[in-house]
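Note to self: keep these together.
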Amino acid sequence: MSRKAAVVALTALAPISWGSTYFVTTEFLPPDRPLFTGLMRALPAGLLLLALTRKLPRGAWWWKSAVLGGLNIGAFFPLLFLAAYRLPGGVAAVVGSVGPLFVVGLAALFLGDRPTVRSLLTAIAAAFGVSLVVLKAGAALDLVGVAAGLLSALSMSAGTVFTKRWGRPEGVGALALTGWQLTAGGLIILPIAFLVEGAPPALDSTSLLGYAYLAFGNTAISYFLWFRGIERLSASSVTLLGPLSPIAAAVIGWVALGQALGPVQLAGMGVAFGATLFGQLNPRTRASRKTQSFSSAERNGQELSMDLEVSSVRR
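Structure:
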């Protein structure tokens, strides 16, 4: 396995893990507490990583961490849950699947990555595949829910692009940067959760187990792998791993909840998964090889020409 393939595989574990969020939330957690759930996902995980790394931001990284934490966590979680509560699950997933298109535009604006027909068509194919997997006939639309879903996708997309643009400070690992963002995002959600939802609900052992999984496996480890992948892969490659989340959710629903998967859903999985794989291919590889071959031939031709000139002078 090549180094890039290994990075892609590890990064893909993040959206696959996020695909289990719906199952854990509905089966293990108290109902109707989306903000509290977002808070419990972010803040304990962030504080744990801060304790493990023992590194705090310095200089400009105080506000950069706040911005990234707000985009990737603090704004994303509440908007995502608002969309999930206002829209049927399938519609929310389809609205969120436009994230790769947002990344293509934002990457062109802030990273200088020119959008290509290939990247646009791949992003559209991924969204279409997700819609086949999760969208059901007669699904109702809610303007507030759709707006929240689009803003959540835009927030996460902007967080991905700015994480790529700013990188991380010298001497600071991805684990510490993840801790900064989760802590900042959790602190943003904290007052909103208490103002909107009031005091925390009573928690039993099942709820505690569910929150522990969301905080540490589903968030701390997954976001570390996600941010690490953003550093090593292009922004579009990373965001095109996103469709793995609804695919994983559909598979978990089929295995654990007995939800049926028909031919249309299976076809959608194939389209979405194919777009995800296609998005990881480097279109420049072949071109760079041609360029290298041409340059090599050009150098050889120049050397041959110089040899002939030297030979003619000697004669």
